[in-house]
Write a structure and sequence with these properties.
- This protein is an alpha/beta fold.
- The chain is built from 38 helices and 54 strands.
- Helix 8 crosses helix 9.
- The chain is globular, with a radius of gyration of 34 Å.
């Protein structure tokens, strides 16, 4: 019985994986009403086993039959459709979004008379199948849509086909026949491979190309692609293209070439016999065959061919040179192969497929005859093996003295591997929350040092550990910069430490802007006109020579720090003065060009792959970390895609990069012009197995059948005075990544991931903030900002056209059309209600990424009602595995209808969602530790990266405060907005992290403003007002309880903690806690008051776990799943562990250099974007190392002091110490008077914001490197403070600013011996 997979039979189609149509013909480009009322012509795809799928026509409305095949290429559909090797086949493109860049002029001829933009004179496929077709194409070189071209050439094509399921059918069943059948046009299924397809596509007469060139090459046309002819002529060949059955022995030539072609090679008997005569003769002329040419040559030699199970087609097939082991990424298109075992004596395999081991080329052991099963001419595909045409021409030119081995690339020299079993690692990383620094786990470091990654501290560790090698490329910009300094100072050479991977000289070439530019010029690569300078004066001169606007970029800077677009002299001077680096590059602005990135990996054997290609949604001018990014690129043609890929590999090889790197391009939006912007262990890639499939090689380029959208997460609203504008210096604190089968789906999913208050691509600001009363929408579109995507939605909703938005933003029109599709569908859905909306429309909305909440809102109902309606229509979620091979290879995962099996029982772990202020790597550490513990217990795990669930009674402030009152636990006086408790008071929203919208109000006006902000952050729960307790200090308790009994606890500041312990015990019992929790206290004198309790893991869990040597998450996980614990060994309330003779300090990191407009005063709402931790014998040593780890530099020049009256008595002793240490002191005017009156001389200076007046105070520009400012400003967030685990410092001690740096290693070794035996260390001498 025929299996019907109709897109409109929703329940069954969802079970079987059918995808509803994406577009409804050309009418889609009209108004939304017309777009949804006019349907495209439908047709059926019918397979020979009876399986039927309904699709929508975008090609010619005629039926056709043939063999179903698939191509995994991400680009190059014009080239693929015109490849004669596809004759008789119905082609399925696995990449789901097709037609993006339209079709170029297919009649345009090059100087040889060949079609410039296609590979033959017609479309060769019998039919085309895609999932999502883009009616709105966008490309400077296109003249028509893909659909228009197909109609002109009378080729049928369907969209709305689940190409993933179809590809699985082809892959699992092997060869399969089928037909595209329109109503009233029956057609029989037939096998085109029963015919001699070579005879159909071959030329009927001899043609000559490159007439007059010195080398005569006879090319046998089995279905030759135009680019093969082009590459031969380019190398000096006069190509004589002859019919497939031409008698070759009667022809004179310098070289014989046998081309690619379609079908079964054994049916071309005349050609096989003609080639056999050549091989058996004594003719010395070289022979080179490609694809069909490989098969014909092997058959002529006496080998056997066979039908491959599914064929090799696409652009990412890894091939190995048998003689050298060198790997290449190749384009392929063949359904037949050669059995290498049947090669006669005198012949050998030359190339093999790195994945399945099939033959990819042969060679004669003594004659100049060689072949390649793949396509070195590409078009489409990578150009890695184009050198084979040079090999062929070299054999011709060198004559009888040449051998194939002598003209092929030589085997690279591979350095000896480090034996893994003898490898020991030493890690330096003060990031306390990184899984790198765990005591246990897979391949953790043998020794860990929580020390600043600076040349001084790294040198001390090198002296003690005496490592053989050092890895610099895994620690980001900090490690690279440190490594360069160690190289320059001679430390690495002195201690014979080898840099593993990319040499330091190459690192310097990529980081130093002038060196980088010089290296690129050596290989004739394009860069923007630029000049490296070291002073503001030189920068101004360079800009005058280049012409404004210019881009300023700093050397050795992370995330574009210090960079900026400068439109005039004033802006350049302002930007250049802020750069704290030794050199900057002033370059011509390429504002408005496309920005494209490639991730490239190169191993020591010179194997190169590009593992990812990305395109920025925003044009150049916005740092890629602040831009929406899609992978793979969506608007690049095959020529552009592989031009940039080839350049990336060329640059990486020239610079000697070993390992991974990222290369960024500016691509002109209306030409092929491009510029390289920047280029941000010793095991050969072919020997590494793909970690996902466990079967294919890692020397492999992903061929995705989905789209990934990355959207940044900003927290700019937390900073007072901060503009929302974004530019070349990165400001985002995190990002999300959404996977979908359409751009619309992945875009809307990613937007929702960014913040819970965002429903999708909607014309509303996050947190439902109101638009400005004086909003200038065009200005908001023209100026990039953190909220511009919502302005785009507002513009489209208000009727602004794509052309105008493109003119304002320079965002590619393809992206804008896709966003317009979302808007049109939303505006159409509001015309329906729950009773009138169709299954078709609901399904389409879900496939375009609309959430149930969005749909409910549009239908005038609720999220819950929309979900029930959807389920009633049989529309359910569908789970697909993220295949990086376009499903072209089987992996280790069993494929069923949902792609993945869910039969195994396991534990779901909820992650923290996108990094943002208050939720970052610390929570990831907790999730990963939980997963590892579960795996150690033999439990299967499922990870969902989403915000953690919490518990109402502890999270809702008013309920929690009421319970504390009932328990008799002290807390500050509070009210749930019914009455005030007196100023100053603290406003605390419910269900927030890191003090979001938490503020101290000192009066009524502040109260009103803060209340409005708090109500936006926590819209459905009350805001509690608490009396602000001045002069109190904050203490945190991290703990794990079991059934209300505390098993594990740690206090971050050692105080007389009887009250803290008692309250912790009561809270655990009252809430019957089983798992992790965190309680925060205020301590003033003998009073201990509870601030809040979080019934979840906290940010400080990794810190306390590694400080006292007990994994809190390990214990919490075992409690939650009922696993027994050795409770006697745990630090309970009755058996605490207090560190002795060492102190751990966790210090926050801030991004003030990137947020120069922000007021850098700390408040109770968290502002730090990261943290580090270090250890020392006392609080001063640990504190100084922690501060140095954050990038703080000890002052070498002057110190600026600004002290308000209330802090002056406490600061006076420190001021005298700074004077005694010899620092030059500067001060604000009033502070300078006070210091002078107390015998501390200080020079009064003006603030940078003050205009310097004649005879007035001098400016502080370039005279100070440290500022001490103490002012009244209310409460500071606990997460922005330095947190101590260990003895509290005596209050009489002064600030550690003036203490000299400690001797790091000896001190760390002493500390380690005093650590508890179960503390976090891996070797006796390693610092925890």
């Amino acid at each position: 019985m025929s299996k019907i997979l109709s897109a409109y039979s929703a329940a069954r189609s969802l079970r079987r994986g059918c995808v509803l149509s994406r577009r409804l013909g050309k009418a889609w480009m009209r108004s939304s009403t017309q777009a949804f009322s006019v349907k495209a012509q439908t047709a059926n795809l019918v397979l020979e086993d009876g399986t039927t799928m309904k699709g929508f026509s975008f090609g010619h409305g005629s039926s056709a039959a043939g063999e179903l095949v698939f191509n995994t290429g991400l680009v190059g559909y014009p080239e693929a459709l015109t490849d004669p090797s596809y004759r008789g086949q119905i082609l399925t493109l696995t990449y789901p979004i097709v037609g993006n860049y339209g079709v170029p002029d297919t009649q345009l001829l090059d100087e040889m008379g060949l079609r410039r933009n296609v590979e033959s004179e017609r479309i060769q496929v019998s039919g085309l199948l895609v999932q999502d077709y883009s009616h709105e194409y966008s490309h400077w070189n296109s003249v028509k849509s893909l659909g228009q071209w197909l109609q002109e050439e009378k080729v049928p094509a369907l969209f709305g086909i689940d190409t993933r399921m179809l590809t699985k059918i082809i892959r699992d069943k092997g060869t399969i026949l089928g037909k595209i059948e329109f109503a009233g046009q029956p057609v029989e299924i037939f096998d085109p491979n029963q015919k001699n397809l070579v005879a159909e596509v071959s030329t009927k007469e001899t043609k000559v190309f490159g007439k007059g060139n010195p080398v005569k090459v006879v090319a046998v046309d089995c279905g030759i692609k135009h680019n093969i002819i082009r590459l031969l002529v380019k190398r000096g060949a006069e190509v004589h293209l002859v019919p497939w059955n031409q008698d070759l022995m009667s022809l004179e030539y310098d070289g014989l070439f046998i081309s690619n072609g379609p079908g079964d090679p054994s049916l071309a008997q005349a050609l096989i016999q003609n080639v056999r005569k050549v091989l058996e003769s004594d003719r010395p002329q070289p022979v080179f065959g490609i694809c069909m040419g490989n098969q014909i040559t092997a058959l002529a030699a006496g080998a056997r061919s066979y039908k491959l199970p599914m064929g090799n087609r696409g652009q990412n097939q890894p091939v190995l040179n048998v003689m050298t082991g060198q790997a290449f990424i190749t384009a392929q298109n063949h359904g037949y192969g050669i059995d290498s075992e049947t090669l006669p004596p005198g012949w050998s395999p030359l190339f093999v497929n790195a994945n399945d081991g099939t033959n990819e080329g042969i060679m004669h052991n003594s004659k100049p005859v060689f072949t390649a099963q793949f396509h070195p001419e590409a078009k489409g595909g990578p150009t890695d093996t184009e050198f084979l045409f040079d090999t062929f021409m070299s054999l011709i030119e060198k004559g009888k003295d040449a051998t194939i081995v002598s003209v092929l690339p030589k085997k690279p020299v591979i350095p000896p591997k480090i034996k893994e079993e003898n490898l020991k690692t030493v890690l330096m990383n003060p990031n306390i929350a990184s899984v790198q620094t765990n005591e246990v786990g897979s391949k953790q470091a043998d020794s860990v040092y929580f020390l600043p990654v600076t040349p001084q501290f790294v040198t001390e560790v090198i002296k003690a550990e005496r490592p053989d090698g050092i890895v610099l490329s895994m620690g980001g910009q900090t490690a690279l910069n440190c490594g360069v300094e160690l190289h320059k100072s001679g430390v690495l050479q002195q201690y014979d430490v080898k840099v593993l991977g990319t040499p330091v000289e190459s690192i310097m070439a990529t980081e130093d802007r002038q060196l980088f530019a010089d290296k690129l010029i050596e290989i004739n690569e394009k860069i923007a006109p630029s000049t490296a300078v070291v002073s503001v004066v030189d920068a101004l001169k360079a800009a005058e020579a280049i012409g404004y606007p210019v881009m300023v970029r700093a050397a050795y800077a992370l995330g574009g720090l210090g960079s900026g677009l400068c439109s005039d002299r004033h802006k350049l001077e302002e930007t250049a003065r802020k750069v704290e680096y030794s050199a900057i590059l002033v370059e011509k602005s390429l504002l408005g060009w496309k920005e494209v990135e490639y991730e490239v990996v190169r191993d020591v054997a010179d194997n190169c792959v590009t593992v990812c290609n990305m395109e920025n949604f925003d044009p150049l001018g916005i740092h890629t970390g602040d831009s929406i990014v899609v992978a793979p690129s969506q608007t690049l043609s095959n020529e552009e895609y592989h031009m940039l890929r080839e350049t990336a590999i060329k640059v990486v090889r020239h610079l000697g990069i070993v390992g991974e790197c990222n290369i960024q391009y500016a691509l002109h939006p209306f030409s092929l012009d491009y510029c390289i912007i920047e280029l941000a262990l010793g095991i050969p890639l072919p020997e590494i197995k793909n970690a996902v499939s466990e079967k294919t090689t890692a020397c492999f380029e992903p061929s995705l059948d989905y789209i990934v959208t990355k959207i940044p997460r900003w927290d700019l609203d937390r900073f007072q005075g901060m503009s929302r504008e974004i530019g070349s210096s990165m400001k985002s604190v995190g990002e999300v990544m959404a996977v979908g089968r359409t751009f619309e789906e992945s875009m809307q999913k990613a937007l929702r991931m960014c913040h819970p208050s965002v429903d999708g691509f909607v014309p509303r600001l996050p947190l439902k903030r109101a638009w400005s009363d004086v909003q200038d929408l065009e200005q908001e579109l023209a100026v990039p900002s953190s909220t511009r995507v919502f302005s785009l939605a507002k513009a489209l909703h208000s009727g602004m056209g794509v052309e105008k938005i493109h003119a304002l933003t320079a965002i590619d029109k393809w992206f804008l059309h896709k966003l317009h599709n979302i808007t049109q569908l939303e505006q159409h859905l509001v015309n329906y209600n729950s009773g009138s909306v169709s299954t078709e429309l609901l399904l389409r909305a879900k496939q375009d990424g609309f959430s149930d909440r969005q749909i409910g809102h549009m239908l005038g109902s609720s999220e819950e009602a929309a979900r029930e309606l959807r389920l009633a229509h049989g529309i359910k979620p569908w789970v697909k595995q993220a295949s990086t091979a376009g499903l072209g290879w089987r992996g280790g995962v069993p494929y069923i209808e949902h792609d993945l099996s869910f039969r195994d029982q396991g534990v779901m772990v909820l992650g923290c969602g996108p990094y943002h202020i208050g939720s970052s790597v610390e929570f990831d550490w907790c999730a990963v530790s939980c997963i590892r513990t579960l795996r150690q217990m033999g439990r299967r795990t499922v990870v969902v990266n989403h915000n953690p669930e919490t518990i109402d009674r502890a999270e809702e402030r008013s309920v929690f405060s009421s319970i504390l009152d009932d328990l008799g636990i002290a807390q500050a006086p509070w009210r749930a907005l019914s009455s005030l408790v007196g100023y100053p008071c603290l406003l605390r929203p419910s269900y927030v992290l890191s003090g979001s919208a938490m503020n101290v109000a000192y009066g009524e006006e502040e109260m009103k403003g803060f209340l409005e902000e708090a109500s936006q952050v926590s819209q459905e729960h009350p805001v509690v007002i608490t009396k602000f307790i001045s002069g109190a200090r904050e203490v945190e308790v991290d703990a794990v309880a079991k059934a209300g009994r505390v098993l594990v606890h740690a206090i971050t500041e050692h105080v007389e903690d009887a009250g803290v312990k008692n309250s912790t015990r009561k809270i655990a019992q009252a809430f019957e806690i089983s798992g992790p929790f965190n309680t925060q206290f205020l301590v003033k004198g003998n009073d201990v008051m509870v601030i809040e309790c979080n019934l979840r893991a906290s940010r400080s869990f990794p810190f306390v776990s590694k400080t006292i040597g007990v994994d809190f998450i390990n214990a919490a996980t075992k409690v939650m799943v009922g696993e027994p614990l050795d409770e006697a060994s745990l630090p309970s309330l009755d058996n605490p562990f207090i560190p002795v003779d060492y102190v751990g300090i966790k210090a926050p990191m801030f991004s003030w250099p990137r947020l120069r407009d922000a007021d850098p005063v700390l408040r109770c709402e968290m502002a730090s974007t990261g943290e580090v931790a270090c250890f020392g014998p006392n609080i001063y040593s640990a504190f100084l190392k922690a501060m140095l780890s954050t990038g703080f530099k000890l002052p070498q020049k002057g110190i600026l002091i600004g002290i308000q009256h209330s802090f002056r008595p406490n600061f006076l002793a420190t001021a005298h110490q700074l004077k005694e240490e010899g620092f030059k002191l500067y001060a604000t005017e009033a502070t300078a008077v006070w210091l002078g009156a107390n015998d501390v001389p200080a020079t009064p200076v003006a603030w940078p914001t003050q205009e310097e007046q004649p005879g007035g105070l001098p400016s502080i520009h370039r005279v100070v490197r440290c500022v001490v400012e103490l002012e009244d400003g209310g409460m500071v967030s606990g997460h922005d403070k330095a947190v101590t685990a260990g003895p509290t410092p005596p209050p009489s001690r002064c600030s550690p600013l003036a203490e000299p740096p400690p001797l790091p290693l000896q001190e760390h070794q002493q500390q380690q011996q005093k650590r508890p035996c179960n503390g976090p260390r891996s070797s006796p001498n390693g610092d925890p």
